[in-house]
Design brief:
Elements lengths: L1 H16 E2 L4 E7 L2 E11 L4 E8 L6 E7 L3 E8 L2 E11 L2 E7 L4 E8 L12 H5 L8 E11 L11 E13 L5 E9 L4 E12 L2 E5 L11 E7 L2 E6 L14 E8 L2
Antiparallel strand pairs: 1-3, 2-3, 2-9, 3-4, 4-5, 5-6, 6-7, 7-8, 8-9, 10-11, 10-17, 11-12, 12-13, 13-14, 14-15, 15-16, 16-17
Amino acid sequence: MKYLCLIIVSLFVLLNSAVLGQSLKLVGNVGGYDVEMYLDSSNYDTGELYGKYRYLSQKEFLTIEGKNYGEVISIEEFYKNKKTGEFLLEYDSIYLNGWWISETKTFPVELKIEDYSSAILNVKGNVDLAKECSSDIPGIYRVDYVFINDYFASEDNPVFELGHNGGSAKFEYTENGDLKFEIEMVCGPTYHFAIAEGIAYKKGDKFVYVSEKNEWDDELCEIEFTFTNKKVYAVANHSYACGFGARAYIDDELIKVADF
């Protein structure tokens, strides 16, 4: 019975971490050329994807591997083990639209899921991680915004990249019951940083950090943290006084993703 239980538990972990034995078919075009794509396996915990695709005018498939970030999917293609291009795709319902990019060319991509019953595009997110955490304040919190960054693109220079905004915060109690914190956020398509650390003190239903007065600015940096339902809303009053980068700020709701 003991070994049977171990087998059942192992099978449960496997089924919840990877989707095997299924194939999700997508059809559409890359730069106007008809293609078909098959995603043959995925990992629910990491978002990793594997499969193949081909242009309908060609018999041979290219292998693909990528990562699912939820609303954005990044996929690299390989021919005879050499990377020949990559896809940056926004995922909306049954459509994946975006761009195919190589070292010399960029083409628009339009794909549609033919078999939507597959679970291959399911991926573990911060909300799922929060379910595994305690309701206590100490821990690690995150917020993630992944997007196709076209900030540097123009008609003459169609440059696209995978953009990451958001960040993380770490909280732990001091011996006095105050809250030691570290927080780092990335803001905007130009990736400026808002970084702060210190001790926040309980004030009503919030924890508040106030910086010491400095010689170059009369304004003090003040950061408020409000905790509820395994989330924290963090907001800073003044980016310059807090020493953040240009166009960087803290004004986000982060979800608890790990206990200590």
